[in-house]
Amino acid sequence: MLLDHLKSELVQFHVRTDNWQNAVRIGGDLLVQQGICTKEYVEACIQASLKLGPYMVLSPGIALAHSRPEDGALKVGMSIITLDPPISFGNKANDPVRLLITFCGIDHDSHIGMLQELATFLMDDQNQQFLLAVTTVEELTGYLQKSKG
Amino acid sequence: MKKIKIMMVCGFGLGSSMILKMTLDKVLKNHGISAETFCSDEATSRGEFFDMVFTSEEMSHLFQGSSKPIIVIKNFLNPDEVEEKGLETINKLTHEE
Hints:
The structure holds two protein chains of two kinds.
Chain A: E1 11-15, H1 20-33, H2 39-52, E2 57-59, E3 62-65, E4 77-87, E5 97-104, H3 112-122, H4 125-133, H5 137-147
Parallel strand pairs in A: 1-4, 3-5
Antiparallel strand pairs in A: 2-3, 4-5
Helix pairs in contact in A: 1-2
Chain B: E1 5-10, H1 16-30, E2 36-41, E3 52-55, E4 70-72, H2 79-95
Parallel strand pairs in B: 1-2, 1-3, 3-4
């Protein structure tokens, strides 16, 4: 379940920041604080997008930031933050971003189950809307328990 | 019927492409199509063996001049877009001798 990956320290709602790099730092820092990745990993996420382009905005309003396991990944995990106001990541088709997921995998496939649960959840528009509106972890947890997400 | 190889490409072959693979797998399942789907990254994808590619606008330049069909997807979480842009080609390749 998605719920298993989202303890309260890994989510933050209605985060206000001024640019996409800082948004990734905020999402990444939640992982650093939980010992899931190093600070270097977070900076590598930013460098990846600078080098490869803003392809990490994979759906309207949703960005998935990550880097390679060898860049400082310590455990499998992800953080979710909602951005309010939304932030432009430089992706023509899908900007601005309102939901930023930062994830970390330790090899090529140990994170697949987690992403699968995330993708299944996000493919439902109603779930997306809920996630963008929610303000407390308790609300989200309750919703996920009810929807078995 | 041929089991074709469909490659998803993103920067590292771990995140976005994995999400896109899940969306495509869902479409294939809905249509009862059997295909091999796999992820690859910016650096190695061109050396892989594949019948067609799904990727983003940002990565599509990697396959400029390729003779294989390259499908550019905007919304990786949208099965309808994947189906609309890719299903016809998948069916065609699957039924090719």
